[in-house]
């Protein structure tokens, strides 16, 4: 079931299974094993789900794919976030999802610096650069490079 869903998602996105594997850092040998009925390990399933914008449960055939909101139904801010998100490489999407998933756990005085870090990261990715020397400790909000 995973393989059929995976191939269908590849077709919808106009890519091949091996193209997706390259994009998420997985070997073509893994793709061959999936075709033969093996299920990817959980970290790989998460990468694939993030790549296609679906849940792991959907990949495994445990739930139906939700119809995404029509672009016209989104606010301008939501549209910009969504378009930017889809231009990001899979590993950056994964990191962004993790940060946003933890966001409400941070105190209000920490939320501002975290949003600024996310904004700067997204702008850096969008403009083709990223400064690894600007790593912010999420626990303290301080620059780790200082």
Element-by-element helix/strand order: HHHHHHHH
Low-confidence sequence ranges: 128-133
Number of domains as seen in the coordinates: 2
Binned, the helix content reads 55-70%
**How would you classify the helix and strand content by structural class?**
mainly alpha
- What Rg, in angstroms, do the CA atoms define? 17 Å
| Mass-distribution shape | elongated
Q: Say what the CATH topology of the largest domain is.
A: 434 Repressor (Amino-terminal Domain)
Please tell me the overall pLDDT. Answer: 77
Reading off the top of the CATH hierarchy, the class of the largest domain is best stated as Mainly Alpha
How much of the sequence lies in strands comes to under 5%
Description:
The chain is mainly alpha-helical. It has 2 domains: 2-59, 434 Repressor (Amino-terminal Domain) (Orthogonal Bundle), CATH 1.10.260.40; 71-126, no CATH class. It is built from 8 helices and no strands. Helix 4 (42-52) packs across helix 7. It is elongated. Mean pLDDT is 77; it is low at 128-133.
In short:
The protein is mainly alpha-helical and 146 residues long.
What's the helix and strand layout?
Layout: H1 2-13, H2 17-24, H3 28-35, H4 42-52, H5 56-59, H6 76-87, H7 90-102, H8 108-126
Helix pairs in contact: 4-7
